[in-house]
Automatic annotation (TrEMBL):
Domain DUF5110 stretches: 698-766
Organism of this sequence: Hymenobacter lucidus
Annotated keywords: Glycosidase, Hydrolase
InterPro entries linked to this entry: DUF5110, Gal_mutarotase_sf_dom, GH, Glyco_hydro_31_AS, Glyco_hydro_31_C, Glyco_hydro_31_N_dom, Glyco_hydro_31_TIM, Glyco_hydro_b
Superkingdom of origin: Bacteria
Residue ranges occupied by any Glycosyl hydrolase family 31 C-terminal domain in the UniProt entry: 596-682
Family: Belongs to the glycosyl hydrolase 31 family.
Glycoside hydrolase family 31 TIM barrel domain location: 262-587
Name by which UniProt lists this protein: Glycoside hydrolase family 31 protein
Lineage, uppermost ranks: Bacteria, Pseudomonadati, Bacteroidota, Cytophagia, Cytophagales
Length: 816
């Protein structure tokens, strides 16, 4: 008996010891190929599955002695079609196996399963240091899975979602564990979003790592040891994708296509939005709408925060504050306003509340490990929380939107508090159980995807009941792939110059992390900005895809007119510029949907061969041809900024600048440093107070001279409905070709969609010669003079929107 007790004690002690011990793969015994998949088995039971997803994407999936779990991912849709692998070769060498694709070489060491990935020229892109290893966690029974890689020479790191820190992540460590971080500051970690994808640039060649693991995960970018970068998670699998560029832009494209871009939003969603915690009662909400129209400030969407509800019960209206919501929403819509309402995950425990009783009767709420329902306090008081990882719960949740959307006319839904957040506790306890779409899990595994799955269910409901219009949703928390379901904002920021700086960085970082439909609370959610800070923030946000002022009611008013007439006029000017640029913004979003290109692109993405761009973070491009650099200091009347190589024009003055150098951009309060790439064609709408207010009868094309050639594109599908998915769209491709004495603009039209406009007003910028003669498709054209919105007098001509070639020749007499 004593021997048995000793033996049992030894077993317990052994488990405790194992909890502090690192384990590694053993000697590889075999490697079996099945199509594009390879399975390596070690003598200690460790297995590695290598999947060749495309010529540029390799997936590495490790199993310890317990074997592989079911293959399931919320980030990567299982039914997504993949391009065929062009070339695949497998060879066994004395000390390693080698897999070769059209773009990559992957070697797998027989001794210890360590991985190296090289390009086809033999340059090492990624090399394991310890490689895969793990610890056994006695408390949870999970493996703490780890991966460490050698730091290659001259390496830089980017991405990882909403981290509020320098653009280049080298020397930093971060954790993904979605957290309601009220009033975060630079360096705060973790935040709301969980996007375990980063990009690595070394020797001017880029690749990415996507660690598809939903447990709490950490990333060390050569912080602890200067020669090692690593990532690990507190459970689940070591399951990551290696994504080759070789350009940074291509890495983000490949990642975005892997996790799938969104559908096209309605164009109005790219307009200006106004929000506050909270606008109530109805008279106040209507006054805000009237304030915009009376002052002629363009605006498309107004938001209702939690106080529109009856006692904070989701899917209800306060009978006191909003006695006739259907009438209010309809009348606001007649004036061009779309009403957006907030919906949180916490469902008030109230036996008189039908949403609660229905969920209770169907057992839709999350439960603790021993069976009780998960209870937590949020705005309504004690709440239960739906398990959005169950398909039937998502279907039920989607159906709840019939009243708000189909019956009341609400046009969009805003999901908040979905990290999930619980007052005074932070989030759910670890023992809360989830279905995880049939792969039963605790909160440790489901926490990071809870907000994403809530957004998924919400998006399904809004889409169902908005049809034939397109849906609009916004979320605070998400996971990789969450861009399929929602737009997002950067959370509870502060009215400070530091947070204006952070908004610029965070929106760029999210964009290159596959999530482009992003913005910040303009002016700051916490505290109150002064007029100067507010205007500078509006100026930046006018170039962010999601453009919304939002503030806490505790800190005063934050409408564009709240700071006096001087600042009102300035803010209005930037909002008007945004509305004129909507066809450019919409086209850039279409490129994101079709090609996976980020809407916002940091300077490094514009020229990774220029080492001057590696540590810079203020400058970014919106799409292909606009370069923006915000003013983030009080009292500044301009700033030094770096122009990428090439030729540029300063938007406000048409001053020509050569890139590859720092330039001074003069920017009093009515300007933001904004440059246009030489050769660009920038489409602009006439000014409207909301999308669809006027029929666009003429599209203005601002054509910028280049001594050489440059291509541009303008996409149009009407901005609403689903006809574009059946081909009802038009893509107009423009080419500018310039010489010292001529400029030629050609157009190629694809698609049968007929836009409302029938003519272009072509405005010519930066010509190096005095224009004399214009020809349109071989016939005569009439040059006139135009005064632009920036006060410049420039040559222009009006041509049919179906033209093929416009040619501008120098004035021979003036030239001679």
């Amino acid at each position: 008996m004593a021997d048995t007790i000793q033996e049992n004690n030894y077993m317990v002690n052994d488990l405790a010891a194992r909890g502090k011990q690192e384990f590694f793969p053993g000697q590889v015994l075999s490697c079996v190929q099945q199509g594009n998949d390879f399975l390596l088995t070690c003598d200690n039971g460790v297995q590695l599955s290598v999947q060749v997803i495309t010529d540029k994407i390799l997936r590495f999936r490790y199993a310890t002695e317990v074997g592989f779990a079911a293959d399931f991912s919320y980030a990567v849709p299982a039914d997504q079609p993949r391009p065929a692998v062009e070339f695949l070769e497998f060879r066994e060498k004395p000390d390693h196996y080698r897999i070769t694709t059209d773009r990559l070489i992957c070697t797998l060491a027989k001794e210890n399963l360590r991985v190296r990935v090289l390009d086809r020229s033999g340059n090492v892109l990624s090399s394991d240091e310890k490689g895969f290893h793990w610890e056994y966690d006695y408390e949870t029974g999970n493996d703490i899975v780890k991966m460490s890689k050698q730091v290659q020479s001259g390496v830089h790191y980017y991405g990882l979602g909403d981290k509020p820190d320098n653009m280049n992540l080298r020397g930093k460590r971060f954790t993904n564990w979605g957290t309601d971080t009220y009033g975060y500051t630079k360096g705060s970690d973790p935040l709301y979003k969980n996007i375990p994808f980063y990009l690595e640039l070394q020797q001017k060649t880029a690749h990415g790592i996507f660690f598809d693991n939903t447990f709490k995960a950490s990333f060390d970018f050569a912080a602890e040891r200067a020669d090692v970068t690593s990532f690990w998670a507190m459970g689940g699998e070591m399951n990551y994708y290696f994504i080759y560029g070789p350009s940074l832009l291509e890495v983000t494209q490949e990642y975005t296509r892997l996790t799938c871009p969104p559908e096209m939003p309605p164009m109005w969603a790219l307009g200006y939005h106004q929000c506050k915690w909270s606008y109530f009662p109805e008279s106040n909400f209507r006054d805000i709408a009237k304030g915009f129209r009376d002052r002629k400030i363009p605006c498309d969407a107004l938001y209702l925060d939690i106080d529109y509800m009856d006692g904070y019960r989701c899917f209800t209206w306060s009978p006191t504050h909003f006695p006739d919501p259907k009438k209010m929403v309809r009348e606001l819509a007649e004036d061009g306003f779309k009403t957006i309402v907030i919906i949180d995950p916490g469902i008030k425990i109230d036996p008189q509340y039908s949403v609660y009783t229905e969920a209770l009767a169907n057992d839709y709420f999350c439960r603790r490990a021993d069976g009780p329902l998960m209870k937590g306090s949020v705005w309504p008081g004690l709440c239960n929380f739906p398990d959005f990882t169950r398909p039937d719960v998502r279907d039920w949740w989607a159906g709840l939107f019939k009243g708000l959307i189909a019956e009341d006319g609400v046009r969009g839904v805003w999901n908040d508090m979905n990290e999930p957040a619980v007052f005074e506790k932070g989030t759910f306890p670890d023992d809360v159980r989830f279905s995880y779409d049939g792969h039963s899990a605790s909160h440790k595994k489901a926490h990071n995807i809870y907000g994403m799955q809530m957004a998924r269910a919400t998006a399904a409901g809004v889409k169902q009941f908005s049809y034939p219009n397109r849906p609009f949703t916004i979320t605070r928390s998400t996971y990789a792939g969450g861009q399929r379901y929602s737009s997002a904002w950067t959370g509870d920021n502060i009215a400070s110059w530091e947070h204006l700086w952070l908004a610029n960085i965070q929106c760029q970082r999210l964009s290159i992390s596959g999530f482009s439909f992003i913005g910040s609370d303009v002016g700051g959610f916490i505290d109150t900005p002064d007029g100067e800070l507010y205007v500078r923030w509006v100026a930046l946000a006018a170039f962010h895809p999601f453009f919304r002022t939002h503030s806490s009611g505790d800190h005063g008013d934050q409408e564009p007119w709240s700071f006096g007439e001087q600042y009102l006029d300035l803010a209005r000017g930037f909002i008007e510029l945004r509305y004129r640029l909507l066809p450019y913004m919409y086209t850039t979003f279409w490129q994101y949907v079709e090609q996976g290109t980020p809407v916002l692109r940091p300077l490094t993405f514009l020229d990774q061969n220029d080492t001057e761009t590696y540590l810079r973070m203020a400058e970014f491009s919106l799409g292909d041809h606009l370069l923006v650099c915000p003013i983030t200091q009080a009292g500044a009347d301009g700033r030094w900024m770096y122009l990428p190589r090439g030729d540029w024009f300063y938007y406000w003055t048409d001053e020509a600048k050569a890139g590859g150098a720092e330039v001074w951009a003069s920017a009093p309060l009515d300007r933001i440093p904004l440059f246009v790439k030489a050769g660009a064609v920038i489409p602009m709408y006439p000014l409207m107070q909301y999308v669809g207010e006027k029929t666009v009868e003429e599209l203005t094309l601002h054509v910028y001279y280049k001594n050489g050639t440059e291509s541009s594109v303008v996409y149009d599908d009407g901005g609403e409905g689903y006809g574009y998915q059946q081909g009802q769209s038009t893509t107009r491709r423009f080419t500018v070709a310039g010489t010292p004495t001529s400029l030629t603009l050609t157009q190629a039209i694809e698609g049968d969609y007929q836009p409302s406009f029938t003519t272009y007003r072509i405005v010519l910028h930066g010509l190096s010669f005095g224009p004399g003669q214009a020809t349109v498709d071989g016939g005569g054209g009439t040059l006139a003079e135009a005064t632009t919105d920036t006060g410049l007098t420039l040559p222009e001509l009006v041509v049919p929107s179906s033209f093929t070639t416009v040619a501008i020749a120098a004035n021979v007499e003036k030239a001679s």
